[in-house]
Design brief:
- The structure is a homodimer of 90-residue chains.
- By secondary structure, the first copy, chain A, is mostly helical.
- The first copy, chain A, has a single domain, classed as Winged helix-like DNA-binding domain superfamily/Winged helix DNA-binding domain (Arc Repressor Mutant, subunit A).
- Chain A is 40% helix and 9% strand.
- Chain A has a two-stranded antiparallel sheet with strand order 1-2.
- In chain A, helix 1 crosses helix 3 and helix 2 crosses helix 3.
- Chain A is globular and about 45 Å long.
- The chains hardly touch.
- The structure holds a DNA duplex (21 and 21 nucleotides).
Amino acid sequence: MTSGDSETIDPGVATPLWRQLAAILRARILRGDYPPGRVMPSEKQLEQEFGLSRNTARRSVALLRDEGLIVTVAGRGSYVADPLPDEDEG
Amino acid sequence: MTSGDSETIDPGVATPLWRQLAAILRARILRGDYPPGRVMPSEKQLEQEFGLSRNTARRSVALLRDEGLIVTVAGRGSYVADPLPDEDEG
DNA sequence: TCTGATTTGTCCGTATGTATG
DNA sequence: TCATACATACGGACAAATCAG
């Protein structure tokens, strides 16, 4: 239990908080906690759950979006993307 | 006055400016000017109040932090630490 | 259409951490 | 010792998009 894939944010380590949060959310997605198509926690919820500012939470979400793990829709939220099944999906 | 416990910075003495500033801040904390839990003056404020550069002020803050007198929170500021009840100071 | 609540988008200001010259 | 630059982090403000009534 000394691994770095914990589910908590630790301000005492060198890794930026937004990268720690991104790692947590990424793990939840890959684990299936947030299945494809499911809406992600809102930025405000991430604020409250992890005790971060909204801007910091937003950076985490932006990273996952850049990785293609989630899709963000203004005014609605971020959704877990489909895990790229195939090109011939139609 | 004219001793080493003045409230002013004197560039004409051998003691580094950051040590002089640290002595001033330390005195203020121990005197109760900055009570426990209270936020310390920002580095920018120390800059302006004592006419030093930010880096110099930072070294003073780092010394007090190393002494356990204050606690620094990234992106927020430094706070006066709670006094240790049983500290063997000699 | 309008209103209100929620959510994301954008911008600004402040402060510390670190690095460089 | 000082000046500058960038990264990290927090907080607030306002706008735009979405949705429910």
